[in-house]
Amino acid sequence: MAAGKTSVGRAIASATGRRFVDLDEVIAEAGTPVAALVARDEP
Predict the structure, then answer these.
(1) Could you tell me how far CA 32 lies from the centroid of its own chain?
(2) By the 8 A CB rule, do 27 and 37 touch?
(3) How distant, in Å, are the alpha carbons of 14, 22, 23, 34 from that of 39?
(4) Given CB 3.0 to 4.6 Å as the disulfide criterion, which of 13, 25, 30, 40 pairs with 20?
């Protein structure tokens, strides 16, 4: 959506000494569609 969330997240992580995790990258690495990941955790 190009709203700058990743850029802001990286800046905040850097400023606070925390690790930044980009969920888009994590989901892509999982190789599973988002809908399947969500459905997997539903009761």
Answers:
(1) 14
(2) yes
(3) 33, 21, 17, 9
(4) 13
Sign of CA dihedral 9, 13, 18, 21: positive
Return the domain boundaries, the chain. 5-40
Phi first, then psi: give them for residue 35, nearest 5 degrees: -60, -40
> pLDDT (tens digit, 0 to 9) for every residue of the chain, 43 residues total?
578 889 999 999 999 999 999 988 888 898 888 888 788 877 6
- Residue 41: CA atoms inside 13 Å, Cβ hemisphere, count? 4
